[in-house]
Amino acid sequence: MDTSPPVLIQAMRCEPVGRTPVWFMRQAGRSLPEYRALRGGGSILEAVADPELAAELTLQPVRRYGVDAAILFSDIVVPLVAIGVGIEVQPGRGPVLDQRFSSDDDVGRLRPLEPESDLPAMLDTIRIVLHETDVPLIGFAGAPFTLASYLVEGGPSRTFALTKRLMHAEPEAWHRLLGAIAQISLASLRAQILAGASAVQLFDSWVGALSRAEYEEFALPASRTILEGLADLAAPRIHFGVGTGELLAPMAAAGADVLGVDWRVPLDVAAARAAGSAPGKLALQGNLDPAICLAPTDVVLEATDSVLGAARQLPGHVFNLGHGVLPETDPGVLKAIVEHVHERTEQQ
Ligand code: CP3
Question: Measured from the CB, is residue 276 less than 6 Å from ligand 1?
């Protein structure tokens, strides 16, 4: 019996791999006809509350694409909803609050998360998925900055003006808010790992809105609390954000095993920017532009080769897109990418 860890975990630990592992952020979703057929018209929050359905939605892309990881079908706002924050996830828009957070008093609306009683459906989903597949499951949570931005803006934002106002005008309230969110995301991730997730990803999707100085003062400490709070568990940790070209060095120092890079910075350049910041070896994840996946397949595979070329000297590489799959993507193109990455990187 082969007892070596899955190739995803080997790559994340910077161990030798038989081939480069591939998965896609937002691989479950509207680009899959079987997803649309199964999800119907209900809210995503209803879907994640049904473990059998959520497990099936987690597994659909594994079967269709032959990816090296499943990612739990859930959302970054699920733990906040579970502790009573009024959030609706609107299709095509994203999370919207019934009452936004505007002052220090609102931090009191966040009580500690007790995963076994607050997130039973999420943990059941993990258990069902583990039963159904040998492919490793990635759990995830939102990073404090990105979750705080939804709470403070009341919904998606382009400028993050209210978020930055709170950060600069009331830094103590800001740090209390981020500290409370960090404990919630940490509790959720620990529970996901204990239930069987093989790796986790911390999504700081919107942190690219910050300068490096702002990141180091206002976002990094709470993200570090989460990543270091998982250090005693065996599951490797991925740390990802969008528009983070200026933030890669401090992000690399936050305590993750893998740094997720968006499509704007080639992986060899990203590695140079991160060099010396991480305490040990750092694997990189990424970073094909999801919009390129809308082009003809030969163009997409050429772009895939440039990502693999830039990753050649890395101690560890997990192939992914630079952000989530766009809903317009042809599933056949994603399948072709998986096969191509596997063929091109297969060790003789
Ligand atoms: O990756 C996966 O396939 C697993 C599932 C997953 C979802 N959300 C399901 C989802 C993951 C990992 C997330 C994380 C998430 N949610 C992030 C971080 C990743 C990123 O994209 O940067 C963020 C910022 C959110 C908040 C959120 N939820 C947004 C911005 C949206 C999009 C709104 C839309 O319809 O375009 C959602 C809704 C959402 N989460 C959908 C899915 C499949 C689409 C709505 C649906 O199918 O009902």
Answer: no
In a domain, 302, yes or no: yes
Q: Pick the residue whose CA is nearest to atom 27 on ligand 1.
A: 94
Query: With a threshold of 0.85, does the pTM exceed it?
Result: yes
Sheet of strand 258-260, all strands in order from the earlier edge strand to the far edge = 70-71, 137-142, 199-204, 237-241, 258-260, 283-288, 317-321
pLDDT recorded at residue 92 = 87
Give me the active site residues, please. 26, 30, 39, 75, 150
What CATH number does residue 298 fall under?
Answer: 3.20.20.210
Tell me, yes or no, whether 64 lies in a domain. Answer: yes
Question: pLDDT tens digits, residue range 183-224?
Answer: 999 999 999 999 999 999 999 999 999 999 999 999 999 999
Q: Does ligand 1 have an atom closer than 6 angstroms to the CB of 266?
A: no
CB 225 within 8 A of CB 186: yes
Residue nearest to atom 7 of ligand 1 (CA): 75
- What are the C-alpha distances in Å from 291 to residues 19, 25, 54, 268, 287? 25, 13, 27, 21, 12
Q: Give the β-pairing of 137-142 and 237-241.
A: unpaired
Whether 31 is in a domain gets the answer: yes
The strand pairing partners of 259, in sequence order, are 239, 284
Q: Can you read off the two tokens belonging to residue 154? A: 């009341």
Q: Residue 156 Cα, ligand 1 centroid: separation in angstroms?
A: 12
Residue with CA at minimum distance from ligand 1 atom 42: 29
Q: Which is the closest atom of ligand 1 to the Cα of 146? A: 24
Domain that holds residue 317: 7-345
Within 13 Å and on the Cβ side, how many CA atoms surround 225?
A: 18
Which of 25, 26, 62, 147 most suits a substitution to test ligand 1, by most atoms within 8 Å of the C-beta? 26
Alpha carbon distance 308, 267 (integer Å):
9
Cβ(25) – ligand 1 distance below 6 Å: yes
In a domain? residue 1:
no
What's the total number of domains in the chain?
1
